[in-house]
Predict the structure.
Amino acid sequence: MKVQRVLALTKKEMMKTIREPAVLFMIFLFPIVFVFAFGASLGGFGGSQTATYQVGVVNLDLGGSQHWSQVFTNNLSNMTILKVNVYTDNQTAQSDLSQGKIQAVILIPASFSDSITSYNTAPNHPSQWVNTTVPLYLDKGSLVATQAIPPIFQQVLGGMLNQNQQTTQSPIQLQTASLVEVKQSSALDFIAPGMFTFASIFLIMMVAQSFTQDRENGMMKRIRISPTTPTEFMASQVISYMGIALIQATLVFAMTYAMGFKPAVGVPAYVFAFILVLVFSVSNVGFGLITASIAKSSSAATGLSFLFVLPQLFLGTFVGASLSGDAQIAGKFVPSYYVTDALTSVFLRGAPLGSVTILVDLAVVSVSCVAILAIGIVLYAKYYKI
Amino acid sequence: MEESAIIIENLTKKFEDKTAVEDLSLQVSKGELFGLLGPNGAGKTTAINILCGLIKPTSGTAKIYGYDVQKDAQKVKELIGVCIQETAIYPYLTGVENLALFGNLYAMNKKTIKERSNMLLTKMGLTEDAKRITAKYSGGMKRRLSLALALIHDPQIAFLDEPTVAMDPQSRHAVWDFIKEQKTKGKTIILTTHYMEEAEELCDRIGIIDHGKLIALGTPKELIAKNQVKNLEEVFIQLTGRNMREEL
Ligand SMILES: Nc1ncnc2c1ncn2[C@@H]1O[C@H](COP(=O)(O)OP(=O)(O)OP(=O)(O)O)[C@@H](O)[C@H]1O
Ligand SMILES: [Mg+2]
């Protein structure tokens, strides 16, 4: 393999992207405009970062005419950062939490007032305290909630017990009972990961058009007459479209960031996101090649490419986020689903990069994308010579 | 070293419904300028496509500089330059960029690419338009660039499939001069054309094919004398015309 050839062809492909208005529009402008329109229609601008947290309080306190639980609730309500909803039963609160109406549920147990009374009676004799555990349920889709809410509760509790900084002992332990997967957080937070996936899908059409056009105008013959090997040619294609995917992802990220998508994750998460998009772009080259193999002409290729574009779009990105359960099952058969899933886990749920979900997604994406590219190359080489 | 640049033996190409080349045998010497003539659909392009490895022959063999066009395709590709019948250039690249791209595909170094590009652009009268996007070129300009692309790597053997089609008289004469110059450098050239004066002016030897078969072979003079006519055009009409009438 001669690097000189691969580089020259890659450069050519990049020139095309910049110079052909139709290509430029399809690859960069269209996804950006779409993301912008979609985001704006969902109220993505500015408003997505809530300055207050909606929390639910379920009061199951029995002791002492619920005095202390009332005080605790009032103290919570006095925090400007919190908006408190009082529930009489845990079930309703949990349901609201899972739907994203509130970001946390704190369950005040039966022994709460007794516990505080016992502390106030003998603050220096822990052995006489009535110990209580306060379960806290948090929206795991809201990274901010999981980070910010527990300290706020802790602060309010500490204030009630007149604790100073030194004493760390307390009869009441706040315990994060579970992180709840929430169905809906901010509209933008929810669709942003899918937007990364979205832009890249249109590469299918570009690749299909590029191959069919070069076939029609005789360029493919010229390349084949030259000493360029099929491997060199395909390498240049894959590199070019990966490069384009990278630029797309950067643009889309800049767009969503400007619109208020600012997940509290570190640099590795972003690096991971870009790697994922790059791997994903390989499958789009593959699908593009499959389309070019079936399509007789470049105009037919445009239409046929939707055969692959649409399922990926609807089953695997934000476009189809509200689809039926059946469609979501069907989503498991398109690579874009796993890309979006991994990105959502990383950005929204704050999943660590080494977690099983992420690794499984990455594995599925890598294997399927390479397989699709291989099928594309084999199929194309079967019908048309490279 | 063999004396023949090209040896074609019993070459046949059948498409599903059509025999495009039938039992073609032919030798072209090194440094020879060989003209392949024949009416539309005679099989000229098909024969060239087989020689440059674009399509597989149904049967028969072809060797270029002793390399089998099928088995040693990679070696053959480095020896040949092909100006295909279609005008194929990248529309979104400029003239120089097109030339540089193909220079790189032939693994030439930067300096040589530049020198060679400048020379070809000058010969083809494209210097002024070298930095323009080729989508904006006129038909004849595209054609001239297409020819320049075929010769960027200074190939030993050039296949020129109707190189001067769509060119104005000046350009055509410039191309003729350039082709003659290639010959003086010892290059082997296979040329197809529908312009008889072009064939008469340039070619050392001519092969006329019709319905995929070689029906005449010789120098222009020999062919004219043998058929007792005034010029090559009459030879052509006599041979291919009679052929057609016989079939009716
Ligand atoms: N890919 C193909 N499939 C089927 N038939 C083909 C194919 N390519 C060429 N042919 C047929 O083979 C015959 C020879 O075609 P070819 O292009 O070699 O002619 P030609 O001599 O170059 O003609 P022209 O002077 O018009 O360029 C024609 O009848 C053509 O229809
Ligand atoms: Mg032809």
Remarks:
- The pocket of magnesium ion (ligand 2) is lined by residues B 44-45, 85, 161 (CB under 6 Å).
